[in-house]
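User: Quick sanity check before I run a bigger batch. Here is a single chain. Can you write out its predicted 3D structure?
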Amino acid sequence: MFHKRLLELAPNIKKYIVATVVLQWFSLFCNIFIMLSISFLIDSTYHHKTLDIPLAQKIGVILILFGSLRFFANLFSSKTAFQSSKKVKKLLREKIYTKLAQIGTSYNDKISTAEVVQISTEGINQLEIYFSQYLPQLFYSLIAPITLFFVLSTICFKAAVILLLCVPLIPVSIIAVQKFAKKLLSKYWTAYTDLGDSFLENLQGMTTLKIYQADELKQKEMNANAETFRKITMKVLSMQLNSISVMDLVAYGGAAMGILVAVIEFSRGSIGLFQTMAIILLSAEFFIPLRLLGSFFHIAMNGIAAADKMFKILDCPIPEKGTAKIEGLDILFKNVSFHYENDKNALQNISFAIPKNAFISLVGKSGCGKSTLARLLKGALKGYMGSIQIGGIELKTLSEKSLMESITFVNHNSYLFQGTIAYNLRMAKPDATDEELYSILQRVNFLDFILNEKGLETSIAEHGSNLSGGQRQRLALARALLHDTPIYIFDEATSNIDVESEAYIMEAIEQLAKTKTVILISHRLANVVNSSCIYVLEEGHILQNGTHSALMETYSLYSQLFSQQKLLEEYGKGGAQYA
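Assistant: Done. Predicted structure follows.
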């Protein structure tokens, strides 16, 4: 089993494979000399009826010499294998990371994060064994039996032929299970990644599952996935054990046949004790390399199955990336349509314009296309139809760097990294001074909190888990303001937070809208009242647009939703006061 594409992927590994094979071959020669020396000593002792001390001393020196050489050969062979594995892991992970970076922020539309993590860790660990152990063993297994045949054929030709004829039975058994093993291991990796996807999704959504009491249902689903994975794992183990049993039978049986022929020839007087002992001591060496190859084969097959998943990532098409720079700030959507892979039309013939420094809002029921519009504008989604222009330049032709420097996107769950307040803020502006950081925190009313802690060195846990929802969002907003781009997109930036934090955030957004282009997406319509224009979306279409007062004057979807929300909020306040 030889995967040509994998070797092409890591061409620099070939020298380590060659070095490992040469060292193993040298170790074999050392072992041959050791066994022949022992056979000669036994033969001499047998014929002289006593141990020849001077001869034993000479052979002892030979054993020490070749034993030491074999030890160092095996030691350096292990080191070259380690270097090979280290470089392979680094190379393959770099290629996966580079590919994901080339795809950009939309990589998650093509492959799940859990699958990327599994392939980059467990999958590449399996491939490490393929390169560092299986491939050297494959080539060594071809050389070793031939080398031993030439040596033993000078001692006992019949026994050497019998041993050589039995050797191919092990590769035949490997080939026999290869096709079945490939299908089985492909199913194994599919079940493994499915279980990983399910686990990651349920872990991330644990709070939501608890709120809606859906955790028991998800537990049953995960149990079903785990049971599927257990069954396929048991099938893989069963296949491996059966295959190893067959290889052991061939190896031990072949060695026994060679020894039997040697004994028969010895009893006939065709060969002496020296030749017989040499056959007995070296017969196992015919089969040990291929027996080890059979063991590595199953790991290698697992690695090949992982490689197929890895190539799925590496073969993902890279979206065409533009090189143009943003020169103007007017935004134009003209007959824009977009659909996801499930063929659901998220947007249909959308056309509207956003002037420079405008404060516009996108509203509508869930699934109407608001977030899709935002993701298209920031370049996270590709493959739209129609035209999206920024400053008169088509979005597709703009460089990713230009988009990143011009558009800042803030959603309801912006990620905060483990570290400090300063560390998270300086991601937006690495050279920001402490004074700038304090000033930006003041703008989002977060300064008082950090001054009561450790200032800018206040520790932040992973995902900001040691902060409240409102505090996390205010810190994310401060980071976005520090980025200081001409266009800002806020996608449900005030959802799932307390009323006080929501008020602070909306105040900061409205202040920002005086000097920047701001696109606000919000389910809570009270937040969009001060927008210069509100676009109401329904099922991928723009149903209506205008200012808040203009839309409220007509009996429209917007006025209905606004009135319903206002009524519910007033009812909620009244209930709270009554309580």
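The radius of gyration is 35 Å.

User: Great, the batch can go ahead then.
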